[in-house]
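Researcher: Next entry in the queue.
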Amino acid sequence: MRQLAFLEAGRVAWQEAPEPQAPDPGGALVRPLAVARCDLDQPMAAMGFFPGPFPVGHETVAEVVAIGDEVTARRVGERVLVPFQVSCGTCVACREGRFGACHTYRARAGAAFGFGQAGGGHGGAVADILAVPAADHMLLPAPHGSASALCALPDNACDAYRAVGPQLTDHPGAEVLIVGGAAASIALYAVAFARALGSARVRYVDSDEERCTAAAALGAEVEHRHGHWPRRYDRAPITVEASGELEGLTAALRSTDDYGFCTAVAIHFAPTVPLPLLEMYTHGITFHCSRADSRRLLPVVVELFAEGRFDPLAVPTTIVPWDRADEAWLAPATKLVLERE
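Model: Structure for this entry, 341 residues:
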């Protein structure tokens, strides 16, 4: 089969690889129909965070092509969403709903598709066939909708939802401040979710004109950032840090209102990151930093999509034919989608 592989920093290419064999009794083989590029994928391939070669891609909607003898909930020919993290569904962590912390599947970067050995060697979604373990647990039926929209749901949409959704459930109508930047699509999806879930006011800060225009179109009040980061912005009870910069992170934390919630959806790679802990202590700030738990959050995100309350394609999306994946994977785009014809 053919798969798109990261080879070295700044270089990806199509490779021939052995096709996965018949699935294990509880697993399935799926054929990806469309793959979205996660906000991490482009810098990961450009800078070479993990050693190659390995197949890329972990946001996908797919068709089931084979199932193991013990699979009962899924069927061949069904269109499914594949959570980007790999989990078993039966260990202690999974039984408690902490699927992203699955005890069965562990890896340095967390068990996931599209990260090579750092993710446990589970294969990548930009491929003709992807092997998925624990299919009854892992695979979710895809709702009606275009493949180019559905493929964004398993990761970046989940990440955006977890930054504002539970908080707005607990604090209906609360104001949201989103500090944009490195996690481009996640920040804009967060705007869309905040508006859909009833935030009375959504503010968006960024230095990029295209993203600011997109945020305004989604219903946010936009503040264009020029030059240095300010110490803080006007405070909001719910803040989202998507800049990926230390100064952006500290500005978001200082902009979180008393006893408010700040969620970092961007990844900070520095081994040590100074935080304004005394101010956070004084103001009672809750700070959350983690990967999104894809399998736990995906059913809620799917429901919002199916109800027409969330549309990933409302965010600027560049849709490219599957065969041009090697040209497009490293190219700039707020959201890139590869779609089979």
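Model: Residues 278 and 284 are 10 Å apart (CA to CA).
Researcher: Noted, moving on.
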